[in-house]
Write a structure and sequence with these properties.
heterodimer, A: 162 residues, alpha+beta, Alpha-Beta Plaits, 2 domains, 4-stranded antiparallel sheet, 36% helix, B: 389 residues, alpha/beta, 7-stranded mixed sheet, 3-stranded antiparallel sheet, 13 helices, WH-like_DNA-bd_sf (chain A), transcription (chain A), Transcriptional regulator, AsnC family (chain A), Tscrpt_reg_AsnC/Lrp_C (chain A), DNA-binding (chain A)
């Protein structure tokens, strides 16, 4: 693994880590680490520094829904055009072109079930190219972005092992 | 414990050599640690990663299918084949007929020593080294010679050939080494191989940390010219694949020696636990990515930790495993005093170095098999402690 990719992996796992510490972990010069990070930021490889929060644990209610969207394509409107239109809504968390019965998988975030229902009915379904939708409300998340959102096993190792 | 009031035996109950065995040097230290809360422990010689899920899943599935019986004394044939194939990466060419599955490397050490050593023959154990070699060698009736490797921690040709007239049967090697983390390059191993030929002895090569080799590629001493017939390789799944509690290891040895080991194994352990063997097979077949992930993380921790330790102490750069063995004598304290006071004053546990041989007395063993967060906190506390002296 190149050092550049190692830096990205470390940051993906902990965006708050200091350049100093990365430099120590990889036996590199701090300035060199900072330059690499800056370059990746400028090139759009590092898109943003994000924190993954277990909102349910924090007591904040948020409702997510995954909407399967089937569309009609035309000469004027291809997948990219429709996807970009859907993606611009602030309620939309993710848009993915997928294979299978439906064309897009759209993840929508709202304050309540009602909120999301209105959004789908009024904003998504009314897009002329949208043929039909199938909504799955998200009941509970167990794993997100590779992180487990439940208590995993505790460290059972003894304090001293020869 | 209930005190029995029966008739006393008119002679010593315990075997003489068992009686004479010294208890582990860290027993007192164990007692100090019990009952203390919030200790950051760098004393644990085991990965902080759980057994990779795909391996656990395979073991669970095998239980559901009812795979719960004895295996052959040698172990599952598929696993032995996979091991022979796997070990080619370390340069050693063997077939499954040279492989025995053991209950951890610990059983392998015992079997290997008992299979080859006669009372009165000499076993050379370079120190500092893992705690069980000398006692197990001693129990075979051997004369145990401990050779100090301080301060560089590498045994050399010159260190060994001095014992040419001592009826040496076995040289014990462990690389990458617990507790120092040092390992041997191919060139250094070739020099050791020359010494082995001069001594006309065997090598028991404990390569349990082979997968966790960072500074250079691990080479098995058995792969060097002529050594395949003089080497008993020991390895297992505890460290590289984080399967400590599964107790599954293996020995690769010349056929006649392996047969000798199997004789003892079949009368004592019979076979390694089948569930663990199934897990081990999955580790070899599909565990490479997880192994690589853990390895990369240990390298990052090593670099970070050694840099910080070097602000305080002399530390030999570990080539592998997950231990650092700093010399703490600059603080004016012995390894034992340092470990005790660090525990009492800063709640950080490290292992006093004399547990691994006398020459380690000025050192402490720190295992960096803890998360970066804990490692950072531990080394900060060590620094505070050293500055307070």
């Amino acid at each position: 693994m190149s050092r550049e990719i190692e830096i990205l992996k470390i940051l993906e796992n902990n965006s708050r880590i200091s350049s100093n510490e990365i430099a120590e972990m990889l036996n590199m010069d701090v300035r060199e680490v900072e330059e690499i990070i800056k370059k990746y930021e400028d090139d759009g490889v590092i898109l943003k520094y994000k924190t993954l929060i277990n909102w349910e644990k924090a007591g904040v209610e948020e409702v997510y829904a995954i909407i399967d969207v089937r569309v009609n394509l035309s000469r004027e409107k291809g997948y990219d055009d429709i996807a970009k239109r859907i993606a611009k809504f602030p309620e939309v968390h993710a848009v993915r072109l997928v294979s299978g019965e439906y064309d897009f998988q759209v993840v929508v975030k709202g304050k309540s079930l009602k909120d999301i229902s209105f959004f789908i009915a009024e904003k998504i379904s009314t897009i002329p190219e949208v043929r039909d939708t199938n909504t799955h409300f998200l009941l509970r998340t167990y794993k997100e972005e590779g992180a487990l959102l439940f208590e995993d096993e505790e460290d059972r190792r003894l304090a001293i092992v020869p | 414990m209930r005190k029995t009031g029966g008739l006393q035996l008119s002679r010593e109950r315990l075997n003489r050599r068992v009686r004479e065995l010294k208890p582990s040097g860290i027993r007192r230290f164990f007692e100090l640690i019990i009952g203390r809360d919030d200790v950051i422990s760098l004393g644990v010689g085991e990965p902080d990663f759980p057994v990779p899920w795909r391996i656990r899943e395979e073991m669970i599935y095998s239980l559901e299918k009812g795979i719960t019986s004895y295996t052959s004394n040698y172990g599952l044939l598929e696993l032995r084949e996979a091991i022979a194939d796997y070990y080619r990466r370390f340069g050693a060419e063997f077939s499954e007929e040279n492989v025995l599955i053991t209950t951890g490397v610990s059983e392998g050490i015992d079997l290997a020593l008992r299979a080859v050593v006669n009372p009165g023959e000499t076993v050379i154990v370079p120190e500092p080294v893992y705690v069980s070699y000398s006692p197990l060698a001693y129990l075979t009736g051997a004369e145990v010679v401990n050779v100090s490797t301080c301060p560089g921690f590498k045994v050399t040709y010159e260190d060994l050939v001095k014992y040419k007239d001592r009826n040496v049967k076995v040289l014990m090697l462990n690389y990458p080494n617990n507790p120092t983390g040092v390992s041997y390059t191919k060139k250094e191993l070739e020099e050791l191989a020359d010494a082995v030929l001069e001594l006309d002895c065997l090598v028991i090569s404990d390569e349990i940390y082979a997968e966790l080799s960072y500074s250079f590629k691990h080479v098995s001493i058995a792969s060097l010219n002529g050594m395949e017939d003089r080497t008993i390789i020991l390895n297992g799944f505890s460290k590289g694949f984080a399967m400590t509690g599964m107790r599954v290891g293996y020995a690769i040895a010349p056929y006649d020696i392996l047969e000798g080991m199997v004789k003892i194994h079949q009368y004592s352990m019979l076979c390694a636990p089948v569930t663990a063997q199934v897990g081990a097979l999955e580790a070899l077949r599909n565990g490479e990515d997880e192994l690589e992930m853990m390895r990369a993380e240990y390298i990052r921790r090593r670099n970070f930790f050694i840099k910080r330790l070097r602000e305080m102490f002399d530390v030999v750069m570990p080539d592998g495993a997950f231990y650092a063995f700093p010399d703490v004598s600059s603080t004016g304290l012995s390894g034992m005093e340092f470990a005790e006071r660090l525990l009492m004053e800063k709640n950080v546990a490290v292992v006093p170095g004399d547990a691994f041989g006398e020459c380690g007395a000025n050192h402490v063993r720190c295992a960096y098999a803890v998360s970066m967060e804990k490692l950072r906190l531990a080394v900060d506390r060590m620094k505070e402690f050293v500055e307070s002296l």
